[in-house]
Structure formats: structure tokens, C-alpha cells
Specification:
By secondary structure, the protein is α+β, with helices and mostly antiparallel strands. The chain has 3 helices and 6 strands, in the order αββαββαββ. The strands form 2 sheets. A 4-stranded mixed sheet has the order 2-1-4-3. A two-stranded antiparallel sheet has the order 5-6. The protein is globular and about 60 Å long. The chain starts with a helix and ends in an 8-residue tail after the last strand. Keywords: Signal. Residues 104-124 are annotated as: Disordered. Residues 1-20 form the signal peptide.
Amino acid sequence: MFSTKIFLLAILAFAASVFAVDITFSGKHESNNPVKPPVTGYRKSYLDLDANDIIKNMGAWSGGRFEAKASRRPGSLTIQNVNKAANEASALSEVEEMRKLVTSNAKKVNKSGSSSPRHAGSRS
């Protein structure tokens, strides 16, 4: 009985990971500190977003300020600013803007694997 529960839990975890996309938001910036890297950001997993939609459209959503690229790991991508920010605070602001663009524009992936607009009426 216990092993059956473990097996079912493993199947559910695998099914959830199939539709998850892991996004690294990265803001490059100018830095006068040789010890601290000139990049700031964070990583977040989204269970229902279409990674290909984000890669294809991030430039348009941001007016060319940000770009999204597939990472080496399957189901993972990186979004970064095209031009370095003036300082770390500006880079953090850009990272937050990237996150907002993703959550407001990216298509959701249904359990069947097909995409649909994130907000009804937001796309034609």
C-alpha cells in the first residue's frame, strides 16, 4: 500500500514537471566592484507557461530591451537585458519588469500540451 502511494506521488510529480518552465531572469549592469559580478537576478519555475512563446515574443513585449533564450537544460530559459543597466538598482528594476512581462503576456500551456492566451481577449 505504501509503495503504491509513493509510485502515484512520483507520477504526479513527473507530470507537473513536464509542463513546468524554469526561468532565470538576469539583469546585467555596470559595476565598479571587481569582487561582485555585474549581474543580478533570480530564478523561478512556472507550471503553466509556454517557453517557446516567451522566447519568440520577449523582444516584442519589451520593445527590444530584453531577450529570451533557451538554456542547456530542457524546460529552462534565460531572460536578460540587451544593454547593461547603469547600476545594480536599475538592473533589479529591469528584472522585475521582465517578470511582469512574462506573467502578463505569456501563453498558458494546457494539460494537453497546447497553448492558449494567458488573459482572455488579450490576443487575437
